[in-house]
Amino acid sequence: MAGRKTLATMLFAALFAMSLVVMLAATIASVAASFSSYEAQAEQLLLSRASSYAALVAPLGDEDGMRARLEGIPFVGMRCTLIAADGSVVFDSDVDPSTMGNHAGRAEILAARESGQGTIMRRSETLGTDMLYAAIEVRDGIVLRLAETRISHASFLGGMAPQLAVSLVAIFILSLLSSRALTAMVARPLREVDLTSPLGNDAYAELQPLLKRVDDQRRELERAVMMRREFTGNVSHEMKTPLQVIGGYAELMENGMIDAKDVPRFAGLIRGESESMRLLIDDVLTLSRLDENACSETGTVFLADTCRRAIRRLEPTARERGIVFALDADEHAAIAGEPSLADQMVYNLIDNAVKYNREGGTVSVDVSRSGGDVVLTVSDEGSGIARDQRERIFERFYRIDTSRSRETGGTGLGLAIVKHAAESFGGTVSVGDSTSGATFVVTIPCAPIPER
Ligand code: ADP
Question: pTM, whole model, 2 decimals?
């Protein structure tokens, strides 16, 4: 896990960045809003003062009368200018009017003549500072103007710097803390997921499918482990029986308790037991391979050939008991899979049909195609299989009649291999009713290229 980015880190980074951006934007917007409302207020105030002075001087006739009146007023914190209709400066509270240029072209003067009043924020050439001007037309083109030194944007912000710095730090800390808390809140249910009981968790709904899968896999694994343990136990048990028999006979021979003439018979018994052990080991290995899904090769298998091979191998045994075979096979019926596994599947079914058949009975083997499937049917004329046993006979080591099965050399694994093999070919196996004896039906999808 080291070096991998965590959900918590990503979430924290995203939340932190987002809250910082939002809070900063809000701060900037509110500073800008307060600055412009402060400006608007100042403009209104200056304008209303200018109006009062204009009203004061308006009745005084000409510019000279007005100037005389204005000269008597002490202007504190602001500058007053009176501009004649021709644009020449008649009076100025701060500067000698004779040094001042014609003001007719100034924006605020033009506005005042146009609409009665005008305000503007500008750098005063005369004073060299940021000035707010408010101009009012007194009458007949004569304009009275008030000017006030204003704080610029920069110095407004400069004045707010300490508060701004404090609030920026506060924003940073607040963003950090709230992002951390939110991240912890979101991540906690994830951290606390208990995988030993996946469905016992109260985590997010989005996690449920994942937890369900984990749970399913756990169960599957537990089952597999249990079955394997059981299987190993059974295998050991099954191996002990022939080994005990072999050991027993060997001990008798060792102690000279068997007559010389009986030795060949006992040797034969020992060979028989070792043979059944070999069969058992073969079957166990086949099943282990099937359990691991380790197919060595896949190919197209024509079941007619497979059936003929199995019958040829079983013919000698069958003949001893007068059992005959009836094969009816579609030569084109083919399945896809491992050929040696198909051999074992077919052999086990026909072997059982011989083993559990009546003396002189018939083993019927049928291979046909139906729909997209190949259907293999193996029937005999033995005692058949009771309904309540039909599921269980496919279990590993399950035998209906233990002594009979052992006597015929059965391992109890034959049908388990048949079922597993059929499934590995994508098919199924079932036991059906027949007029006499048992009928096994294996249905497997046709191979993609069935013609030869
Ligand atoms: P086994 O090696 O004992 O034959 P299988 O797995 O092949 O083991 O078969 C399981 C059991 O099913 C057998 O012990 C037997 O009792 C029963 N069985 C299988 N095939 C037949 C059949 N054709 N007729 C009657 N019983 C059968």
Answer: 0.63
